[in-house]
Batch of 4 targets.
Target 1
Amino acid sequence: MVLSPEAKLWWAQAKRDFRIAERNHANHDYEVSVFYCEQAAQKALKGLLLHRTSQMPPKIHNLVELGRLTGVSRPMRDFLAELTPHYMITRYPDAAGAVTSDLYNGRLSLRFLRGTKKVMEWCRSRLR
């Protein structure tokens, strides 16, 4: 099946967000890296849903629900459950209860980068 123009847009943005996550990790801006990991995973999953259904994906930020809708494995769903709250925590000190940059380090950022890469690869393999 050929990707629709809309699905191509979602996938292109997911790839760009992942590259932004990698660059921010390299620059030691770890909370920004994790935020963009969440964004990349979200857009990759939504792009896959759009590809499969030809309908705009739901306007939600719950990666677990997006994973359920796309049929990810249990281990991947567990990763998505761990990543989901960082959509808010990375951006809002009231959600984090701290200055967000104080909560993230290179090890945590790298773990989210690796997990997000697996999500992206899983989605890409199903976009063909």
Target 2
Amino acid sequence: MCTYLFFLQMSGMTSLGLIEYFSPADRKIADWFILTMTTGFPWGSGVDSRLQITDTKLRDVRVKIYQPANSLGKKKRPVLVYFHGGGWSLLSADCYDPIMRKISRESDVVVISVDYRLSPQHPFPVPLNDCFDVVEYVLDNSDTLGVDSSRVAIGGDSAGGNMAAAISLRHQKRIALQLVLVPVLQIINWQTTGYMENVLYLNKSINSPNSLVFLTNYLNLSPAYAHQFLINNHTSPEFKKSKYFDSVDQKKWMPKKYVRTKDLWENIEYKKDFGNQELFKKVEGYLKEPLISPLIADDETLSGLPFTYIMTCGYDFIRDDGIMFHEKLKYLNVKTELAHYPEGFHNALMFPHGPLKMDIGVKIIADIVRILKNKL
């Protein structure tokens, strides 16, 4: 409800001409709102003697580096490069500061939080390339950073999880661990059980059908096309019969046990005789791109992925992407762990502390810390 009221306020300010959607002012207000919800203060957290926090740039990309104070001076430290969520369009490394502090402090891992450029001003592949650049800098300059090049993890949530999975496809042999949290991993089929089961609950949340505008931002498309994606009208009848659609087949990759409404899973059936051909021609290249939809990567590529920790939540309309990714990696004998929180919601990981502290947020962050300690 808090998020819904925030978006109502933003809509009102936009209609009055006070701000523009996805402008610097819009994004700053969004950051302040999230920080207030998660810490109680719009300016976030103060000084922490247990961490050395540095704002800098790596390959011209702004980052925040968190170093546990007790590790300063050491040369072979584990490191997590993290990509924040926000639909490639909102939020920032500053907004994620409280979460990154907590993860670095409790795991004793150096964290590099990437402030990649945002859409629609910088559509695909710009945000992804910013993240690639930082990861490659860390891998190639580990001695300078005082980290161990064999203990590099990457991770992110939502859109950040998408980019973490994409980067692992290219740097699979150099990454020790990936954290793929509440990720969007495919843009082919939006009529999933996760969407159909949760759409009524989530209409007034940040994880609502309206968030498809974030995808159109990323793909440099008019937001008017967002609804076309939502009803799968962005794919042609021929494409719906292709190997790409088969790669996100829920009957094959979505176990029934994760679907609350059992007859929904049993009655999965996709009509394949429709589609907006004009829109399909605009997006065909994107639909076939594994760096946008890691779930459709070929088996040979997926087989080479590092240990993959996947987190999903029951009340999330992109719930199924992470679960299907886990099932596909298991099938290919990739080491993977799925942490599924049936009672969780899309951005629950933001609430392990602060005025809206939730048990589910505490649990999610504790599990992430456990994985970093045990696997990195």
Target 3
Amino acid sequence: MACPHVSGLAATVKSWHPTWSPSAIRSAIMTTAIQRNNVHAPITIMNGSRATPYDIGAGEISLFGPLSPGLVYETRTTDYLQFLCNMGYNTSLIKSVASTAPSNFSCPSNSSPDLIPDVNYPSIAVSGLKANKTRTVKRTVTNVGEANSIYYATVETPIGMQVQVVPKLLRFTKAVKKQTFQVTFFLLTTTTSQEPLFGSVTWSNWKYKVRSPFVVTNIA
């Protein structure tokens, strides 16, 4: 029953915001999802252990949160095209299968698997991070809330990692509706577990909480 519930919620968001793109609607649903059940305890799986993003994604959908998410992550056509570039496909092959590719599109010269996490998605996945190494991911958010707003970053950091968000404050005005930030992941040398590491980055103010889960897999 999950699919009809999400589909119905997406249709409701679209009826409230007819100009929003599918990626904006997806972002609104993901970033306002909740991680606690109806008795306010962490969501668990069948064996009683705490659920991870591999089990529940961004969380349990909120019925009203997506109607007013504050910020959204817009994913453009070029994001997906550059994802294919970073996967190793060349420009001519991508254009042969992607009819929406602009005529002047070409793969960036610095295309690399390391840039795959830069797709402007409401969550972050970093794979193959080596101990004592860093990986920086960038994201751009669009303000769909009050014109003059300030958001502050908070990070849920897993044990064995350091996570830094730059800048830690995003300021929006009537003229400035988009802001870009970077998230840098540093895997400590003391980390020996091969298990994925889960956490989140949340932008919040007095009214909104815009949460993005992340997962980092490591190479010992």
Target 4
Amino acid sequence: MSTHDGHRQRMKNAFAEHGLESFDDVHALEFLLFYVRARCNTNEIAHELLDRFGSLDAVFEASVEELSNVDGVGRETAIFLRLIPEVSRRYMMSRRKMTTINDTRDACEYFRPLFMFARTERIFVLLLDNMLRVLSCRELGRGSLDFVNMNVRSVVEMVVNYRASRVILAHNHPGGGITPSPDDYVSTEMLEKALGGFGVQLLDHIIVSGVQAGSIFKANRDYRQIV
């Protein structure tokens, strides 16, 4: 066994016994890269990535193009690194056990995982029946850091397809803060009016930023009292 192989095996053994507790960010990233770069010094690549982006979370939030521009990374490694936050988000979503959304707190808990690692604005539509049971949750669009182009017609089509009678909208503020912008109020009012024309109620509009989440309508709103 070469010195290179021996180092990798020691790191694998350490992880198998203790997880990542004894690893700093560089070594955690180095270890992760073992599984996509079999024959190179992944410690150097890990340093390059952290030097370029500044933190582990920023590495995982970077685009494939941004990652590919780092020395030693390449497109395959960039795609692999982008897979990590996407799988993490899917994992968190799969742990959700809520089949009924009764209030703002439920809605916030439901939506938080959908925006993990998101660098740009995204918007989701949660479709409910008249008993507040979840029918489906669909991504409506993605935008720049400051803007999501909401297609009201697409929301109406989703409502018709799933025969929903209640809707909850959610989007994120990647730049931080959950204070609604003027555009947030405008888009909420526009969607509320459009849905009302079909006898469908917009129950809430949730804004998520990191671990924070809040309602445009009202904090701690009980949906059961208004349906």
